[in-house]
Design a protein that fits this description.
By secondary structure, the chain is an all-alpha fold. Helices cover 96% and strands 0% of the residues. The chain starts with a helix and ends with a helix.
Length: 46
C-alpha cells in the first residue's frame, strides 16, 4: 500500500517534469528556427 502510494506520487511528480522538458526542448527548437529565419532575412537584405 505504502510503496504503491509512493510510486503514484513519484509518477505525479515526474510526469509534469517530463512535459516541461519536452516543452522546453520544443521552445528551444522554435527559438532557433526563428533566429535562423531572421538571420536569413538579414542576409537576403545585404
Amino acid at each position: 500500500m505504502c510503496s504503491g502510494l509512493f510510486s503514484t506520487m513519484m509518477g505525479f511528480v515526474t510526469f509534469p517534469l517530463r512535459v516541461i522538458i519536452k516543452l522546453s526542448k520544443m521552445a528551444i527548437l522554435i527559438a532557433l528556427i526563428i533566429l535562423a529565419i531572421k538571420a536569413f532575412k538579414k542576409m537576403l537584405r545585404k
